[in-house]
Structures are given as C-alpha cells and as structure tokens.
C-alpha cells in the first residue's frame, strides 16, 4: 500500500485548523437536539454547509442527508457515516451549550459525530484535485431505535459503495485514543414482551384461579437458564428481564401478567436459537398450567456490528504512522448500533474515539443526563474520517 505522506500530513494539519469550526458546530447541534426522524433543523444546517462546499446533496431516510463529492479521477466509492439524532433525556450539565429543549439532549455524542464529519467535508474538498473516486458523507437520522441505517441501505444509497467507515465517541476510552477492533464489536438487540393470561380470583383462594403471576415468574427463570444451560459459554449472550407488571392490589389474583426484556448476542445463529427456545418455553410451560401466553418481539431486530478485519488492518496501517492518537483495541460491548446494517451490506469499520477525561469531569456514561464530550479531541475524529476516505480511494483499484 503506497501512501501519499504529504497529503496525509496536510489533512491532519487542516483538521487541527478546523478545530474551532467543529467545536462551534457541535455546540450548536447540542443546544438544538432533535429526536429520531425529527432532525429537520440539523439536516438543514448539514445540507447548507455541504452545498456551500460544492457537494451534491440527496435527502435520505426522511430526515437524513447524503453529501456526494466526486474526485478529479475515476475510482471506487467510499462512505463516511455520522448519526444525527438525540435522546429523550433532560440534560443536567451546567454548560454554556446546554440543551435549550427540555426533555431532549445529545446524551450519546451524535452532535460530535455530525460536526466532525462536516469538518472532514471541508478537508476532502481541499484535496479534491487528488481524490480518486467518490465520497459519500452519510448524515443518518434515527440511530436511537429508529433504524435509520436500515432505511439508508434499503433505499439503495450504498449499493455502489465499496466500504463504509463510521465513528463513535467512546466514554470507556481515555481522551485522544482511537479504538479499532476486528470482528464483533457491538451486539445485536431484540426487545421482547411476554403476556400470560390466566383466570383471576381471590388471593385467599388461589386454587379457584389460574395465577398468571406464578407462571410468568417461572417462565422468566426458565428463559434465563437458556443462557447458562443451552448456549455455548464461549458465545457471549445476554437475556435481561427489565420490566414486570401484574395486578392492582394485595388480595386479588389478576387475569394477566406481563414481562419485558432484551436479548443481546454477537452471533445471529445464537440469537435465532434463543428466540426459538423462548417461544417453546413460554408456550409449553403456560399450556401445561392451563394458561395462555404470547411472546412478541417488540422492536425490529438490530444485528450485531461486525468489523471487517481487512479494513481494521488497513485503518491501523494508515493511522499509526501519523501519530495523531494512540491506537488501542476496545472491548466489545453488549450495546447495539444500527451501523450493523451497513456492515451486513458492504465491508465496514466502526471506530471508537476516546473522550473520557477525569480532570474535566467527563466520566458519565452514554445516555446519562450528565454525559459530555471532551471537545479537545474532536479534530482527531475529523482527521480520521478524512484520512481513511482519502487513503482508501487512493489505494484501491
């Protein structure tokens, strides 16, 4: 792989120069958070910035924007992705750029992702005369539960793309580190709901009723045992029951009981086995007690995010000589990301950018009302986006 060292150093230098621009954008997005498929203001700002730079823009997935930049020479197509949506969280940080919308907050760093990718857009325009191929900047809506990535893929926006690079600020890694991991990085995600219907009665006469509470507690314990007794212990998998509802008072056996939870795995075959066994357990056990039950998957399945090994090696080879940040291998997480839909379609790499800074008090986890980002490292993310796109296109036939 032949690298244009001078161009890469220019990209890094420009990323540093764009630091204030990226921070200003990030703060603007942070003050005006928008939930999934509500990103009207955010996408308008993004589209305006891209058009000023000379990008062609395409609207996608309702409130998403894709910027397209063609180089002076023909070549492959590479995509860079940033998500734009916020969360229904009430911010507790006392900062000048605090969310101005009660009950909504960028508590996961998508404001930073969007700003860093706009910074990269400036750099890619600067090196356009040396750019071989085409870059698509995917500003994606609705990562938080809306599966915006799935809509981008289904609408054909990456059909011509050879590789996708994504990035996420990462509170588990120290500020200024870059996390690159081969293979499984984030888990799949399912949400399930089990409803057991029985026969109500008086708590003093349980023999005259068909108690759905007793049944649903046993069902919950039984599905927990799928992990410990039926799944290979070398295959990471989690079932968590997170909500149980039944009854209204102390002396009445209710007609119905409900529980909800989530399933997380790194292996789709394991996930499918768990779902099948849960259905068998729910139906079989409750039927034996003369009850009726139903198991439903409450949200559309989010696959695991599997990083392409060749792209991971490529990114390390490109970034290490630049010495812009220490490269580490992050631990896999049972959290989920809809970036997985890109990775199922084309070779993809999801990178972590460390933001944890204890001296600044940036220690709170994602989705926490005190979550914040160490803005001093945002230029690194801008550089990584631009370096990987430029180099990928330069080194691929």
> Which CATH-level-2 architecture of the largest domain?
3-Layer(aba) Sandwich
Number of strand segments: 16
Would you tell me the structural class of the helices and strands? Answer: alpha/beta
Strand content: 25-35%
> What is the top-level CATH class of the largest domain?
Alpha Beta
Mean pLDDT: 97
Share in helix: 25-40%
CATH homology superfamily of the largest domain: Zn peptidases
- Spatially, the strands of the biggest sheet line up as 1-2-4-3-5-16-6-15
Largest sheet geometry: 8 strands, mixed
Series of H and E elements: HHHEEEHEHEEEEEHEEEHEEHEHEH
Q: How many structural domains can be distinguished in the coordinates?
A: 2
What is the terminal-to-terminal distance?
11 Å
Our count of helices gives: 10
Shape: elongated
CATH fold-level assignment of the largest domain: Aminopeptidase
Oligomer: single chain
Question: What key attributes describe this structure?
Answer:
26% strand; 4-stranded antiparallel beta sheet; 397 residues; Aminopeptidase; alpha/beta; 10 helices; elongated; 2 domains; 8-stranded mixed beta sheet; 35% helix; Alpha-Beta Plaits
């Amino acid at each position: 792989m032949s690298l244009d060292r001078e161009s890469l150093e220019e990209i890094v230098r420009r990323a540093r120069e764009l630091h204030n621009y990226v921070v200003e954008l990030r703060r603007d997005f942070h003050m005006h958070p928008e939930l999934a498929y509500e990103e009207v203001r955010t996408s308008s700002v993004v589209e305006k910035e891209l058009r000023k730079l000379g990008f062609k823009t395409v609207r996608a997935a309702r409130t998403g924007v894709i910027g397209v930049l063609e180089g002076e020479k023909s070549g492959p197509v590479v995509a860079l992705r940033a998500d734009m949506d916020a969360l229904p969280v009430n911010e507790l940080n006392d900062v000048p750029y605090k969310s101005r919308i009660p009950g909504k907050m960028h508590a996961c760093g998508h404001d930073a992702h969007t700003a860093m990718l706009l910074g990269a857009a400036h750099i890619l325009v600067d090196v356009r005369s040396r750019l071989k191929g085409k870059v698509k900047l995917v500003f994606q809506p609705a990562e938080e539960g809306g599966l915006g990535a799935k809509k981008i893929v289904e609408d054909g926006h990456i059909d011509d793309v050879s590789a996708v690079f994504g990035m996420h600020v990462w509170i588990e890694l120290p500020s200024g580190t870059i996390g690159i991991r081969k293979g499984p990085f984030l888990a799949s995600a399912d949400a399930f709901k089990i409803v057991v219907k029985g026969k109500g009665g008086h708590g003093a006469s349980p023999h005259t009723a068909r108690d759905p509470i007793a049944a649903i507690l046993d069902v919950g314990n039984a599905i927990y045992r799928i992990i410990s007794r039926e799944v290979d212990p070398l295959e990471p998998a989690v079932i968590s029951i997170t909500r149980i509802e039944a009854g209204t008072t102390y002396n009445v056996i209710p007609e119905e009981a409900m529980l909800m939870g989530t399933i997380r795995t790194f292996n789709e075959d394991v996930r499918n086995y768990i779902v099948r066994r849960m259905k068998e357990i729910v139906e079989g056990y409750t039927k034996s007690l003369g009850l009726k039950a139903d198991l439903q998957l409450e949200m559309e399945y989010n696959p695991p995010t599997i990083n392409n090994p060749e792209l991971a090696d490529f990114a390390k080879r490109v970034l290490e000589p630049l010495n812009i940040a220490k490269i580490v291998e992050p631990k896999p997480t049972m959290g989920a990301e809809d970036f997985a839909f890109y990775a199922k379609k084309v070779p993809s790499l999801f990178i972590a950018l460390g933001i944890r800074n204890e001296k600044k008090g940036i220690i709170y986890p994602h989705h926490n009302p005190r979550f914040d980002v160490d803005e001093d490292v945002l230029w690194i993310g801008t550089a990584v986006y631009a370096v990987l796109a430029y180099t990928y296109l330069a080194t691929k036939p």
